[in-house]
Write a structure and sequence with these properties.
206 residues, alpha/beta, Rossmann fold, 7-stranded mixed sheet, 33% helix
Length: 206
């Protein structure tokens, strides 16, 4: 049975999300974003992939499986949820895995849309190794919340990509991969996380 962390009101539209490659579902970012999104009226459901859950019991830190190998696990969690309105997504790796199954889920009516929090468009320092091929025929409504200076896809890079019309962006000013801004921006992490949570709530209310 999957263990979930829950935020937000029961009966509200559900955002099913999971973590990035190295931090668990209760990282500072995941806790803060989920709480803020819950305050916006979203029912946030967090879960962990088996490799991450295993770290808690074994103390060992094996690398994550390839994203493709995590799709079936995410799909099984999604299919276990009984809710009329579900959006899928996640932080970094979690969002990438969700994006790889999103079109099928949208077509079959299993999910109404996709929310990615810091999408890993390419590995840091390798801007030519793009992870966008599966977006070619994408019609699934999508929101990507991305830091403007995210090393996995900076704003000036991403805005040159050919991406589907169904994909919208919320840019966190001066934000890194966790949307944390530079001090000189005058903003705080909380400012950017709250703005992202509001953007997600607006996207899910359409």
């Amino acid at each position: 049975m999957t263990d979930f962390l829950l935020d937000g009101p029961e009966g509200a539209p559900v955002l099913l999300i999971t973590h990035g490659s190295g931090a668990p579902m209760d990282s500072v970012f995941m806790n803060e974003f989920s709480n803020l999104a819950g305050e916006q009226g979203i029912r946030v459901m967090r879960f962990e992939f088996a490799y991450m859950a295993g770290r808690r019991t074994t103390g060992k830190k094996p690398p994550p499986p390839k994203a493709e190998k995590l799709i079936s696990e995410f799909m099984a969690v999604l299919e276990s949820i009984d809710a009329p309105e579900i959006y899928i997504g996640g932080k970094s790796l979690g969002g990438r895995v969700a994006s790889m199954m999103a079109q099928e889920c949208y077509t079959k009516g299993l999910a109404k849309g996709l929310v990615c929090l810091g999408y890993p468009f390419h590995p840091p320092g390798k801007p030519d190794s793009l992870r966008t091929a599966h977006f070619a025929d994408f019609t699934c409504p999508t929101l990507i919340c991305q830091g403007e200076r995210d090393p996995f896809g900076k704003r000036e890079e991403v805005e040159t990509y050919k991406l589907p019309k169904s994909m919208a962006f919320h840019w966190a000013p001066s934000g890194n991969h966790d949307m944390t801004p530079l001090k000189r921006s005058g903003l705080t992490s909380q400012d950017n996380w709250q703005a992202a949570a509001k953007a997600v709530a607006k996207f899910m209310s359409k």
